[in-house]
From TrEMBL:
Gene behind the chain: topA
Domain Topo IA-type catalytic positions: 155-582
Recorded catalytic activity of this chain's protein: ATP-independent breakage of single-stranded DNA, followed by passage and rejoining
EC number assigned by the record: 5.6.2.1
GO CC, any one term: chromosome
Ranges for region Disordered: 369-394, 701-724
Name this protein carries in UniProt: DNA topoisomerase 1
Listed cofactors: Mg(2+)
Known function: Releases the supercoiling and torsional tension of DNA, which is introduced during the DNA replication and transcription, by transiently cleaving and rejoining one strand of the DNA duplex. Introduces a single-strand break via transesterification at a target site in duplex DNA. The scissile phosphodiester is attacked by the catalytic tyrosine of the enzyme, resulting in the formation of a DNA-(5'-phosphotyrosyl)-enzyme intermediate and the expulsion of a 3'-OH DNA strand. The free DNA strand then undergoes passage around the unbroken strand, thus removing DNA supercoils.
Record's keyword annotation contains Repeat: yes
Pfam families membership: HHH_5, Topoisom_bac, Toprim, Zn_ribbon_Top1
Location of the active site: Y328
Family: Belongs to the type IA topoisomerase family.
Length: 858
DNA sequence: GCAAGGTC
C-alpha cells in the first residue's frame, strides 16, 4: 500500500481552490510552491495547472526557417516540452511524495489530454503511484462529492485523439506557413501564416468580399401611403402607414416592384382614388419565448449588440469570473445543470439594484428555466454565481457586462412575452395596400431583459368594409444592396456552425487575422494579402482553407477515441496528403511568391510619387514610426510624414488632386481619418503660424529690460532669445503651440487635431497668454473652451497622473477613487500593496481582484 | 519566429 498524501490535479487554479473548498468543507489552507497555489488539508493536496503545461514542437535542428526545407517538417518528429516550468516543477515535487493521484481536469477531450500530460509528468518521478480520473460538469457540492466517490480511470484513447489533432495542426500549419513566408521572402515579424482554423475563417471573409465586388445592383420601387380612419363623435382619427403589394408570377406576395412602368401604373391608380376599403383584417397572438442560457458564442453576440468587440467581451467576462461574480465564460453548454436552483439564485439579488426584477420573478408560481440545444459536459452555461459585486467595485464596462449576464439569467427564468399581430389589407382602385401591426400584450421576459428590440407598430382596430382616407402617397426608387460584411460576432457564430475553432479560441482567431495583416477595420475587410493567401491556398492546398479539414479531423478523432483507429493511422494519412500538396506547391514556388509579394506591396501603396512616378508606400522608420516613402528609394528620396499616433490603414478613397489613397490611423478609440498625406502636408505649409505670446523658455520675460549678454545673438543674460509662441500646423497634420525658434527651442504644448482654434480676448494672468476656444464649424458639437494652453496642458497632465490607476483594465473611476482613499494613488503603490490588507480596507474590493490588477500592472 | 488548444 502506498503512503503519502493524495494529490488532486485540476485544469486551473480557480477550479483547484473551489474543489479544495468543497472537499475540505472550507478548511483547506493555501500554500505556495514555485509560485503555484497548493490547497492543503488533512492528507490531501490540490494543485491547479494552467491548461496545457507542455507544448508540442519540432526538434531544435528544425528551428531555423532558412536551413530547413518546409517539406521536411512533414517527416520531422514532434516532441513535447514543458511550457510552464514553474507549474511542471511544482507538479513533479508534489507527485514524488504523493500516495495517490486524482486527475480532475475539465470533462472534455482537451481536458482528458491535459490530464494525460499531467499523468506523464507524474510518471516521470513516481512509477508506482496509483492514478485515477474524476469527471464532473460543474463544480458544485453534489457533483464534485459524487465524482470523487466514484473515481474512474484516464481515457487514453480520448487523449490520443487530442494528440493527433496537435500533430496534424502543427505539421500542416508550420510547413505551409514556412513555405508561403519563404516563397514571398517574408521572414521577419510579417510572416505569412495559414492553419486549419484561420484558413477557412479567412476564406469566409474573402468569399464575402468577392460577392460584394461581383454584386450588380438592381433597381426596384416601393410604394407607401398613409391611411386614416374616419373617426367619429368620440373617436379620434388614427393614421398609419401601409405598403403597396401585389401577387407575383409565382403566386407569392411581393412588395418590391421590379418594373418601372408597373410601379408608375400602381402609383397612378392609388393617386386617383380618395379612399381605400378594408378587405381583410387578420389578428393573431404570438408567443415570444425567452432566450436560452448563454454559451460563449451567444454571450459574445449579445455583448456585441451593446457595443463590445468579441475580444473585449471575453476579457471582461474572464475578469468577472476570476473575481467570482459569474461562472466560467468558456462553455458550449446552453442547459443549466440540475442542481442550479433558480429561486435560490434569484433570492441572492434581493437588496441589490436588481431586487425589484428578482422579486417579480420570484412571484411566479412555477419557475422552469429555458434550455438550448447544446448540452455538454464541459461547464454550465454562463450565469451569475450569486456573489454580488458592489457597483463601485466594477468599472463601467464591467458593470454593463455583468448586468447583461444577470439579466440573461433573469430572462431564462422569466415568462414568455405575447404579441398581438394585426394585418390589415385595403383595396384602392384595384390595387392593394397592407399594414402589419404588432402590439406587446404581455411584456414577459422583455421586462427584465431590455436588450432585444420590443418596439411596437400600432395599427388601429379597423373592420372589414371600413373606408380609410389615403394620403401622402410616395413612390420610392431603391436599389438592391450587396451582402453585408460579417461582423465579429456573426463570424464567430458562423465558425461555430461550420464546426471550426472552439469556444475558447474563436475570438482569438479573429484577433490573429488582424495581427497578421489579413483583415482591417470593423466589420473586418480583407487585405490584398488575404486575398492572395486564400487564392494560393485554393489552388494548391485547398484543404487548409476548407471547413472539411476540421470535419475530417473530427471524424478521425472520434475513431481514435472509440478505439477504431490509432494516432499513427491518422497522422500517417495526413502526412501522405500533405506530401501530395507539397508537390504542387514546389512546382509553382516562384509564381506563388511573386503573387504574394505583389499583394503585400499593393496593401502598402498609396499612389504615384510626384517626383519620379514610382509608387509611394507606407514605410516604418528605424524608430518605429510610420511615414510615406518612395519605392524608388534610394534613387528617389521623396517622403511625406504621417501622424505619430496609431497604425496606418490605406483606404479605398483616393484624393483626386494627387491620386493618392487616403490614410486612416488605427489607434483604438482614438482612430481617425488622416486623409491624403500630400494635402495635409501642403495645407500645413500654407497655414501661417499665429503668434499668441512670448515663449516661456526663451522669450522676453516681463522683466525684459535685462541686459543682453553681448555675444550678438540677442540672448539676454537670463537666456532669452526673444522666442515667441505660435499656433502651428505640422506637415503630418498635428497642431500645437510651439516656439517660433524651433528647432533651436523645442518648447511646445499639444492642441487637438480637430476643430478650428479661436483666439479670444481673455488672457490668462499667470502666463500672459490668450484663452483658446476650439470650434467645430461642420458639426453641432459645442465649442470647447480650452483656455490658456499652458494651464490646459498642466490640467491634462494632472488628469493623466490622477487617473493613472485607471490605465489598468478593471479599475474604473469609482474604484480608483476608493483606492486613493486607502492611499493607493498610483500604479507603483498598487503593485507594492498587500492584497489582503487592501481588501480589508476598501469596501467591495476582494484580495483576488487586487492580485489581478497587480498581475496586469506588470 | 510556424498551428490550435488550453489558461492568465
Amino acid at each position: 500500500m502506498t503512503s503519502g498524501p493524495e494529490l488532486i490535479v485540476t485544469e486551473k487554479d480557480n477550479a483547484a481552490r473551489r474543489i479544495a473548498d468543497i472537499l475540505s468543507g472550507g478548511t483547506a489552507e493555501t500554500e505556495r510552491m514555485n509560485g503555484v497555489n497548493v490547497y492543503t488539508w488533512g492528507g490531501k493536496r490540490v494543485v491547479g495547472l494552467s491548461g496545457h503545461v507542455v507544448g508540442v514542437d519540432f526538434p531544435a535542428e528544425y528551428s531555423d526557417w532558412r536551413d530547413v526545407e518546409p517539406v521536411e517538417l512533414i517527416d520531422a518528429s514532434v516532441e513535447k516540452r514543458p511550457t510552464q516550468e514553474n507549474i511542471v516543477r511544482a507538479l513533479r515535487r508534489l507527485a514524488r511524495k504523493a500516495g495517490s493521484v486524482v486527475i480532475a481536469t475539465d470533462y472534455d477531450r482537451e481536458g482528458e489530454l491535459i490530464g494525460k500530460e499531467a499523468y506523464e509528468l507524474v510518471r516521470e518521478v513516481n512509477e508506482d503511484v496509483p492514478v485515477s480520473r474524476v469527471r464532473f460538469s460543474s463544480i458544485t457540492d453534489r457533483e464534485v462529492t459524487e465524482a470523487f466517490a466514484n473515481p474512474d480511470s484516464l481515457d487514453f484513447d480520448l487523449a490520443a485523439a487530442g494528440e493527433a489533432r496537435q500533430i496534424v495542426d502543427l505539421m500542416w500549419g508550420a510547413a505551409l506557413t514556412r513555405f508561403l513566408s519563404l516563397s514571398a521572402r517574408q521572414l521577419g515579424e510579417d510572416f505569412i501564416s495559414v492553419g486549419r482554423v484561420q484558413g477557412p475563417t479567412l476564406k469566409l471573409i474573402v468569399d464575402r468580399e468577392r460577392e460584394i465586388d461581383a454584386f450588380d445592383p438592381e433597381d426596384y420601387w416601393e410604394l407607401y401611403a398613409d391611411l386614416t380612419t374616419a373617426g367619429g363623435a368620440d373617436e379620434a382619427e388614427e393614421k398609419f402607414e401601409a405598403q403597396y403589394f401585389y401577387i407575383d408570377d409565382d403566386g407569392t406576395e411581393a412588395e418590391r416592384v421590379w418594373d418601372q412602368t408597373q410601379a408608375e401604373t400602381a402609383h397612378m391608380a392609388l393617386a386617383s382614388a380618395q379612399s381605400a376599403t378594408v378587405t381583410d383584417v387578420r389578428r393573431r397572438t404570438r408567443t415570444d419565448t425567452p432566450p436560452a442560457p448563454f454559451n460563449t458564442t451567444q454571450f459574445i453576440r449579445a455583448a456585441g449588440s451593446i457595443g463590445y468587440s468579441a475580444q473585449r467581451a471575453m476579457s471582461i467576462a474572464e475578469d468577472l469570473y476570476t473575481a467570482g461574480y459569474i461562472t466560467y465564460p468558456r462553455t458550449d453548454n446552453t442547459v443549466y445543470p440540475e442542481d442550479l436552483d433558480p429561486r435560490e439564485l434569484l433570492e441572492a439579488f434581493s437588496g441589490s439594484t436588481f431586487a425589484d426584477d428578482a422579486e417579480s420573478l420570484l412571484d411566479q408560481e412555477e419557475i422552469e428555466p429555458t434550455a438550448g440545444d447544446e448540452e455538454t459536459t464541459d461547464h454550465p452555461p454562463i450565469h451569475p454565481t450569486g456573489e454580488l459585486p458592489s457597483p463601485s467595485a466594477l468599472s463601467d464596462d464591467e458593470w454593463e457586462v455583468y448586468e447583461l449576464v444577470v439579466r440573461r439569467f433573469f430572462a431564462t427564468v422569466a415568462p414568455p412575452a405575447t404579441w398581438e399581430h394585426l394585418r390589415v389589407v385595403a383595396e384602392v382602385g384595384g390595387e392593394s395596400l397592407k399594414a402589419n401591426g404588432k402590439r406587446l400584450l404581455e411584456p414577459g421576459y422583455h421586462a427584465v431583459y431590455p436588450y432585444y428590440n420590443s418596439s411596437e407598430n400600432i395599427v388601429p382596430d379597423v373592420e372589414e368594409g371600413e373606408e380609410l382616407a389615403v394620403s401622402n402617397l410616395r413612390l420610392e426608387e431603391k436599389q438592391t444592396q450587396p451582402p453585408r460584411r460579417y461582423g465579429q460576432s456573426r463570424l464567430i457564430e458562423t465558425m461555430e456552425q461550420m464546426g471550426i475553432g472552439t469556444k475558447a479560441t474563436r475570438h482569438d482567431v479573429i484577433q490573429k487575422l488582424y495581427d497578421r495583416g489579413y483583415i482591417e477595420s470593423d466589420p473586418p475587410r480583407p487585405t490584398r494579402l488575404a486575398r492572395a493567401v486564400v487564392e494560393a491556398s485554393e489552388e494548391f492546398a485547398d484543404l487548409i482553407v476548407s471547413e472539411e479539414m476540421t470535419a475530417q479531423l473530427e471524424q478521425d478523432m472520434a475513431a481514435i477515441a472509440e478505439g477504431k483507429a490509432t494516432l499513427d493511422d491518422v497522422t500517417e494519412e495526413s502526412r501522405e496528403y500533405l506530401r501530395h500538396v507539397f508537390e504542387g506547391l514546389m512546382e509553382n514556388r516562384e509564381a506563388l511568391g511573386d503573387h504574394l509579394q505583389k499583394s503585400m506591396k499593393a496593401d502598402k501603396t498609396l499612389g504615384p510619387c510626384p517626383e519620379c512616378g514610382d509608387d509611394l508606400l507606407v514605410r516604418k522608420s528605424r524608430h518605429g514610426s510610420y511615414f510615406v516613402g518612395c519605392n524608388g528609394y534610394p534613387d528617389c528620396t521623396y517622403t511625406l510624414p504621417l501622424p505619430s499616433t496609431g497604425r496606418p490603414l490605406i483606404l479605398e478613397e483616393t484624393c483626386e488632386e494627387h491620386g493618392l489613397r487616403e490614410v486612416k490611423m488605427l489607434a483604438g478609440r482614438k482612430t481617425f481619418v488622416h486623409g491624403c498625406p500630400q494635402c495635409k502636408a501642403d495645407a500645413a505649409e500654407e497655414e501661417e503660424d499665429l503668434v499668441i505670446g512670448a515663449c516661456p523658455e526663451c522669450g522676453e520675460s516681463a522683466a525684459s529690460e535685462t541686459p543682453r549678454d553681448g555675444d550678438g545673438d540677442g540672448e539676454t543674460v537670463d537666456g532669452e532669445h526673444g522666442g515667441e509662441l505660435a499656433i502651428k500646423r505640422l506637415r503630418n497634420g498635428s497642431r500645437l503651440v510651439g516656439c517660433t525658434r524651433y528647432p533651436d527651442c523645442e518648447y511646445s504644448l499639444p492642441l487637438p487635431r480637430r476643430g478650428d482654434v479661436e483666439v479670444t480676448d481673455d488672457r490668462c494672468e499667470e502666463h500672459d497668454l490668450p484663452e483658446l476656444h476650439i470650434v467645430y464649424p461642420d458639426s453641432d458639437r459645442e465649442p470647447w473652451e480650452l483656455g490658456c494652453p499652458i494651464c490646459n496642458y498642466r490640467e491634462y497632465q494632472a488628469r493623466q497622473n490622477g487617473s493613472e490607476l485607471e490605465t489598468i483594465e478593471g479599475i474604473g473611476e469609482k474604484t480608483a477613487e476608493k483606492l486613493k482613499m486607502a492611499e493607493i494613488t498610483d500604479v507603483e503603490s498598487l503593485k507594492n500593496a498587500d492584497p489582503d490588507e487592501i481588501a480589508a480596507r476598501v469596501d467591495g474590493v476582494g484580495a483576488e481582484r487586487v492580485r489581478q490588477w497587480q498581475a496586469k500592472a506588470d
